[in-house]
Amino acid sequence: MTRSLRYSLVDAFALASSPFTGNPASVLVLDEPLPEELMQKIAAEFNHSETAFVVRRSSPSEFDLRWFTPTLEVALCGHATLASAAVLFKQGAPGPLTFHTRSGALVAEKTPDGKSVQLDFPADDLVPVEGDDRESAERALRNALRAEKDQMRIGFVGKGKFDWLFEVEGVELADLPVDISALVHIPSSRGVILTTGSSGVSASHRFYSRFFGPAAGVDEDPVTGSAHCTLGPYWSGRLSAAGEELRAGQGGPRRGEIAVMWDGKSENEGGRCKLRGEAVVVAEGTLFA
Length: 289
Description:
Layout: E1 4-12, E2 23-30, H1 36-46, E3 51-56, E4 62-68, E5 73-74, H2 79-90, E6 97-101, E7 104-110, E8 117-122, E9 127-128, H3 131-144, E10 153-159, E11 163-169, E12 191-196, E13 207-213, E14 218-221, H4 228-238, E15 246-251, E16 255-262, E17 272-277, E18 279-288
Parallel strand pairs: 2-3, 4-6, 11-12, 13-15
Antiparallel strand pairs: 1-2, 1-18, 3-4, 4-5, 6-7, 7-8, 8-17, 9-10, 10-11, 12-13, 13-14, 15-16, 16-17
C-alpha cells in the first residue's frame, strides 16, 4: 500500500531569515513510526545532510525524533531539530517542545521575539590529541587542503564524542578549497570540524567553522548545530565567556549562522549548550512511499 506522507523543506540556521541560506533539512511529522528501512530510503531520496522523522506522542508538546543522513542514522543533529521545531510551531504545537531521541530529551522553544528557535543540547568535552595520532591527523588534513597549505597554522587538535576538531589560522577558512576524499584518512565516528577565531571571521561573529562528514555520507554540512555542542565549550573556554552567548558563522559555498551559550559545566557534570537560530520553511509537499 502506498503511503501519502506530508513533508516540509526547511533552511535552518539561516542568515537573517533568508531562504536558501543555512542548512536544509527535510521534516516529516508522523502519527506513527515508519519502518527503519523506509526512513533510510526516504532520506536518500531527499539527499539532504539530514532528514528528520517526528512522531507525535499523546502530549501535544512531546515527540519522538530520529535523524537520517542519505546513508545512515545519526545520534544527534542540531539543524534538523531546529527545522522540526519550526515546522511544529508553524502547525500550532504549543511550546516548549520536548523531543525524545537517542541523545536523550531535547527541548526547543521560541525566543521571546518569536524570530528564532532555541535548543537545549548536551555539551561535548574535547580530549586533546598529541603525539603520533596528532601527527597523522595533521598530515591528512594538510593533504585535504588544496590551497595555502604553507600559510596554514594548526593550533589545538582534539576529539569529542563524535568529531575531530582542528583550530586553524592563517587561511580564509570560509573560502578554502577542501579535498573531501582526503579527509576519510582522519578516523572519526562522524566528522571533522575546522574552526578559527580570527582568519576570515566577520565583526559580528566570535568564531567561524566548517564541518565535513564523509564517513556519515555528508561531504560538507553548511551549519552543524550539534558540532556547536563541541565548539561552544571550546571557544567559551578560550574566550573566558562561559554563560555568554557567542554568535558564530559556519559554511563554505553555502553559509549560515548560529548563537551558542555554554553553561560552563563539563559533559560529565551534565553540561548543556543553548543553540539559537532562525529557520525558514521553503517548501511543503507530499511524498508517496
